[in-house]
């Protein structure tokens, strides 16, 4: 059973697709979102959840006060579940997109829009660095990007625009999952 951890929809149960997804555990979501809440908060933020699966990550952000949430998944079954879960959470500005993450990002760019991007690609997804490159043009200044990977996966190579030194901001592990995070900082000369 998967549930919303905190916020206005706290405790509400959401459904997950029966196949093809690997839902982020309640423990991992609670740790991730507690960390994000302390440092950034969610009020007035525009959040993108790609490879959304059940939508648990984006809907957790919605429950905690995000202004607007976009959930993207290519699976018809996942999208059906996400739409159901969005109704359970009851946030007025949740939009569900049935398409590949790359296609969605190509259609968004370049639009400096998202304050937070949550990406949980399949563990066998092998182009995380390319994904980060597609995410970058959609980011507002000082946006945070979180990528969930298997702990044995190579760490992302964050471009120079992420954190002052271009290195990862934080890394958190929960069981076999690793959350890599970085802050995007637009060049002041742009």
Task: Give a description of the structure.
The protein is built from 5 helices and 9 strands; from the N terminus they run E-E-H-E-H-E-H-E-H-E-H-E-E-E. With 190 residues, the chain is an alpha/beta fold. The protein has a single domain, classed as 3-Layer(aba) Sandwich (Rossmann fold), CATH 3.40.50.150. Strand 8 (170-174) and strand 9 form a beta hairpin. It starts with a strand and ends in a 7-residue tail after the last strand. The relative contact order is 0.16. This is DNA methylase. It comes from Corynebacterium casei LMG S-19264.
- What is the N-to-C succession of helices and strands? EEHEHEHEHEHEEE
Q: Specify the biggest β-sheet.
A: 7 strands, mixed
Number of strands: 9
The share of residues in extended strands comes to 25-35%
Distance between the termini: 46 Å
CATH class: Alpha Beta
* Structural domain count: 1
Instruction: Indicate the percent of residues in helices.
Output: 25-40%
CATH evolutionary superfamily:
Vaccinia Virus protein VP39
Radius of gyration: 15 Å
**Any guess at the CATH architecture?**
3-Layer(aba) Sandwich
Strand order of the largest sheet: 5-4-3-6-7-9-8
- Overall, the morphology is globular
CATH level 3 topology: Rossmann fold
Low-confidence stretches: 164-168
Number of helices: 5
Mean pLDDT: 89
| Multimer state | single chain
Output the structural class. alpha/beta
């Amino acid at each position: 059973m998967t549930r919303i951890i905190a916020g206005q929809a706290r405790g509400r149960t959401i459904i997950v697709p029966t196949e093809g997804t690997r839902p982020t555990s309640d423990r991992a979501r609670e740790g991730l979102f507690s960390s994000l809440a302390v440092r950034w908060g969610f009020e007035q933020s525009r959040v993108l959840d790609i490879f959304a699966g059940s939508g648990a990550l984006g809907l957790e952000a919605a429950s905690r006060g995000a202004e607007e949430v976009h959930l993207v998944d290519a699976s018809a079954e996942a999208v059906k579940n996400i739409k159901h879960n969005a109704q359970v959470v009851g946030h007025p500005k949740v939009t569900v997109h049935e398409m590949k993450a790359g296609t969605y990002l190509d259609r968004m760019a370049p639009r400096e829009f998202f304050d937070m991007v949550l990406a949980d690609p399949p563990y066998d997804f092998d182009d995380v660095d390319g994904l980060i490159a597609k995410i970058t043009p959609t980011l507002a200044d000082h946006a945070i990007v979180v990528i969930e990977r298997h702990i044995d996966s190579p760490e992302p190579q964050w471009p120079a625009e992420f954190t002052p030194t271009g290195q990862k901001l934080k890394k958190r592990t929960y069981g076999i999952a690793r959350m890599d995070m970085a802050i995007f900082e637009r060049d002041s000369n742009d």
